[in-house]
UniProtKB/TrEMBL annotation:
Lineage: Eukaryota, Metazoa, Chordata, Craniata, Vertebrata
EC number, as in UniProt: 2.7.1.81
Keyword presence, S-adenosyl-L-methionine: no
Compartment(s) of residence: Cytoplasm
GN (gene name): HYKK
Designated name of the protein: Hydroxylysine kinase
Length: 222
């Protein structure tokens, strides 16, 4: 999510084993792991975690997602804190979001330091409840489904207008490649498409964006 080049992503992405990830869940969150498996991720590391029931925990969820942030994001704990508050806010507003789990120290995240041999690296760790379901990519697309997605996105947008946090401005990151107003930043990745029709189409879209959108950005609600 740092938007940096591929090399820096490789250097900063966590490489915890399943055994190490299980130990994190138990030491940081006090939960006994019965099964753990990796989940897809871009530049962080995610695990699907199943916990064992104990005499003291006969209710509550048994499936979680352990998220280990990359070394770059881990330098900005306020960013993760705001994200966690947004999740809690949306949950309270009735959205089907995950729940943020507290650490044994009653925090939403924990900074874990690991000695890699050549240096000590720090990673922000958090635990969310697991949301069952299927990705949209695996479901037949219908007008009703697309309408539902659009309606949910609009409702999400309207609800987030009411969200307040003293550190909210940390979300406004310059040159953040996932921000849609930063489409021109994609130019340096055009080579990944190779010399073909797709590359030409993307080049045209970026050029149109510069001419038709960038010149009017100040007129749009953000």
């Amino acid at each position: 999510s740092s938007g940096d080049d591929q090399q820096s992503q490789t250097l900063s992405k966590p490489t915890f084993s399943e055994v190490q990830a299980s130990a994190l869940v138990e030491s940081v969150f006090g939960l006994k792991v019965s099964k753990i498996q990796p989940l897809p991720s871009f530049d962080d590391q995610n695990f699907h975690v199943y916990i064992s029931r104990t005499k003291d925990s006969t209710d509550g969820p048994i499936e979680y997602v352990l998220k280990i942030s990359n070394t770059e994001t881990s330098k900005h704990p306020d960013l993760i804190e705001v994200q966690s508050h947004i999740i809690v806010f949306l949950k309270a507003a009735g959205f089907p979001t995950a729940s943020v789990c507290r650490t044994k120290g009653d925090n939403t995240t924990s900074l874990v330091s690991v000695d890699s041999g050549s240096e000590i690296k720090s990673y922000l760790v958090r635990l969310l409840t697991y949301l069952p379901g299927r990705p949209i990519a695996e479901v037949p697309v219908s007008p009703q489904l697309l309408y539902g997605i659009g309606r949910l996105a609009a409702k999400l947008d309207k609800t987030l207008e009411k969200f307040h946090h003293p550190k909210l401005n940390i979300l406004h990151r310059e040159n953040f490649i996932w921000n849609l107003k930063n489409v021109p930043l994609l130019e340096k990745y055009l080579y990944a498409l190779g010399e073909n029709q797709s590359q030409k189409i993307v080049e045209q879209v970026i050029q149109l964006f510069k001419e038709e959108v960038m010149t009017k950005l100040s007129l749009f609600r953000e």
